[in-house]
Amino acid sequence: MKRQGSHKRGFTLMELLVVIAIVAMLVTVMVPVMLKFMKGRGLSMSGNNIGGFIAFARSEAMNTRQTHVIVCYTQEEELPGQSEAGLAFHVGPGLALYRLNANPAPGTDEQEINYVKQLDFRGQIGGDVEFAPRWIAEAPTGPIDNYLSDAANTRFNGKYKVAVLADGRLIIPQDKPGYVLDSGETMNLNTDLILTDNDRFVYIDLNPTTGAVKRSLVLDREEVSEP
Questions:
Q1: Residue 187 forms part of a structural domain
Q2: Residues in Cβ contact with 184 at an 8 Å cutoff, skipping those fewer than 6 apart
Q3: Which of 85, 88, 216, 219 could disulfide-link to 180, CB 3.0 to 4.6 Å?
Q4: Which SS3 state, helix, strand or coil, does residue 21 take?
Q5: Cα–chain-centroid distance for residue 34?
Q6: Average per-residue pLDDT in the chain?
Q7: Residue 225 gets which letter from DSSP?
């Protein structure tokens, strides 16, 4: 008996060319959209991470019953001997948290100013993030009297900082009251922190009582008053 073989049909050259053309067209359209989305993704992540970082700082302050301080680093700096191994490491641009202990116990590694943790803005998905130039120029960087020790004010002089008290309250220099609600408040937003990826901006407001963090949408340069 003669077995009937199956017939297999492949793609013709014309069909392949049509498929390639369609894929190329989709890539041309989608790549700019995806790049635009990913560009703002880094700012969104940083804004969200700041909320988690401040929540962690408040938890540490309340659990240890010690004042902590959040320090903003506008550029990368080397901190000598702050790691667990006693080796130098780098911090910034971003935030760093320190625990303050006015009376460290003798014979321990505890110091008057103790590094706890950092939030690094570099290498975010969608691009590196940093503090906006206008914020750097305008942010108050003097001492926080009555809340931070002389040693802490001296060490972090010239940097914007937020004191985190043992009861969870935040002492925010020149606090900008009110929340950023939506992009309808653009052009002249004035908030506690401003982040950028050099093309877009995110405005962040801190609540001194609850530690809650509210951020704006990711805003294009044309939507804000940034230089």
A1: yes
A2: none
A3: 216
A4: helix
A5: 21
A6: 83
A7: -
